[in-house]
Amino acid sequence: MSHVTTCDVKVRNLDALEQACQRLGWTLVRNQKTFAWYGKWLGDTELPHGLLTDEHRVKWNGFTNTRDQRQYLTEIFNQCDHAIKVPGAKYEIGLVRRGEDYVPVWDYWQDGGLSQDAWAPMAQAYAVCQAKMAAEANGFIVGESTLDTGSIELTLTRAW
Amino acid sequence: MDKTIKVTVTPDGKTTVEAFGYTGETCIRDTAALTNAIGFPVNTEVKSEFFMSEAEAHLDLRQS
């Protein structure tokens, strides 16, 4: 072995995301600008990492009362660039563009049917699909197997 | 040893890219295309073979 790299998944490629959705039986709805959630920010959970921009934070800090802050966060939460429908769930996952990346946003209140770790299977499926696409584009032949741990292993060899 | 790359993705999406049989810069080139596509590297470890020339690596394999 000569090189090991560990990386965190960043969602940037909608085609790979669509493949990942198909793999999981989920549905990507491109250009859906809102997603189903409780509809009112109550301040009882943390905001998704990466959702708020610096501009958002400055404006949020400028409000002098909790009601206005929550109303502002509700407005932010009500917007997305694309959405994902998960079978059996009443709520949806929104994808919000931040720079080059899409931040997944969802409400994990139990009645909505999406758990707090609802994104985990997508993180795996997306990484697998994106790695396969990148590998094939770079001339690799890709083999796939599932390990006992639940991890998915791709074996890449040169096609030439 | 044939050049092979293994990509392992855990159930929560943590991804490790390992290169086998590579020496030098070709290792960086082939793995960078993948890590850049998947996300951003958080940890990189270079193994001793990385610093070998192709000839040294071949000799090392014959001796092992």
What's the Cα radius of gyration of chain A?
18 Å
> Largest sheet of chain A, described in full?
4 strands, antiparallel
Ranges of chain A where pLDDT stays below 50 over 5 or more residues in a row are none
Main sheet makeup of chain B? 2 strands, antiparallel
Number of helices of chain A: 4
Strand order across the biggest sheet of chain A?
2-3-4-5
Give the % helix of chain B.
25-40%
| H-E string of chain B | EEHEH
Q: Characterize the overall form of chain A.
A: elongated
Tell me the span between the first and last alpha carbons of chain B: 12 Å
Question: What topology emerges from the helices and strands here?
Answer:
The complex is a heterodimer of chains A (160) and B (64).
Chain A: E1 3-9, H1 14-24, E2 27-30, H2 54-62, H3 66-77, E3 82-85, E4 93-98, E5 101-105, H4 120-137, E6 140-146, E7 152-158
Antiparallel strand pairs in A: 2-3, 3-4, 4-5, 6-7
Chain B: E1 4-9, E2 15-20, H1 25-38, E3 39-46, H2 54-63
Antiparallel strand pairs in B: 1-2
How would you characterize this protein structure?
The complex is a heterodimer of chains A (160) and B (64). With 160 residues, chain A is α+β, with helices and mostly antiparallel strands. Chain A is built from four helices and seven strands; from the N terminus they run βαβααβββαββ. In chain A, the strands form two sheets. Chain A has a four-stranded antiparallel sheet with strand order 2-3-4-5, with helices on one face. In chain A, α1 packs across α4. Chain A is elongated, with a radius of gyration of 18 Å. The model of chain A has no long low-confidence stretch (mean pLDDT 92). Chain B is of the alpha+beta class. Chain B is 38% helix and 31% strand. In chain B, β1 and β2 form a beta hairpin. Chain B is globular. β1 of chain A pairs antiparallel with β3 of chain B, so a sheet runs across the interface.
